[in-house]
């Protein structure tokens, strides 16, 4: 019976926690980012990737300077800090205007043969670094082989963690609470000594 009571107590605690997590209390979205990435952050990632694709498209199909003007407009209108780096981790402020002092994440990405996008929380800011790979349309400006790293574009913006406490959070923890409730019901009806009594009754 001790096993039963222990299992009921543990399950009940998790059930209560799941119920509370359906409402806007700690931990916030940024606090659980390493464990679970909500749809809110995935949507931000998609927006960053669209901006990066648009930047490359403008740069290759028109004057390169227009691509930086596009990024500047995005920054001013949407409060997103956007930076462009070359394959040597040097910041490119405009075509032909290069300065040192690259971001640590960009430096690590540049050292990898096939870097992937990086997404992380930096205090109250959401940071993303997206590698740009050479494609046939990039040969006008870059001599790197196809699929080789030609640069990295980074994004940094504030985020509203309370968005995490919308329908998505309620549904996720609602399902968890339902499963725990069923498990708790089963544990209450469970009689671990019943099988032993049946053996001795025979």
Give a brief description.
By secondary structure, this protein is α+β, with helices and mostly antiparallel strands. The chain is built from six helices and six strands. It is elongated and about 80 Å long.
Written account of the structure:
The protein is of the alpha+beta class. It has 6 helices and 6 strands, in the order αααβββαβββαα. The protein has helices at 2-20, 39-61, 64-78, 104-110, 167-189, 194-201; strands spanning 81-86, 91-94, 97-99, 118-122, 125-133, 149-158. Strands 1-6-5-4 form a 4-stranded antiparallel β-sheet, with helices on both faces. Strands 2-3 form a two-stranded antiparallel ribbon. Helix 1 (2-20) runs antiparallel to helix 5 (167-189) and helix 2 (39-61) runs antiparallel to helix 3. It is elongated, with a radius of gyration of 26 Å.
> How are helices and strands ordered from N to C?
HHHEEEHEEEHH
Q: pLDDT average, as an integer?
A: 82
Strands, count: 6
Radius of gyration over all CA atoms, rounded? 26 Å
Neighbour order of strands in the largest sheet:
1-6-5-4
State the separation between the terminal residues, measured CA to CA: 22 Å
Largest β-sheet summary: 4 strands, antiparallel
Primary descriptors:
202 residues, alpha+beta, two-stranded antiparallel sheet, elongated
What is the fold's blueprint, element by element?
Blueprint: H1 2-20, H2 39-61, H3 64-78, E1 81-86, E2 91-94, E3 97-99, H4 104-110, E4 118-122, E5 125-133, E6 149-158, H5 167-189, H6 194-201
Helix pairs in contact: 1-5, 2-3
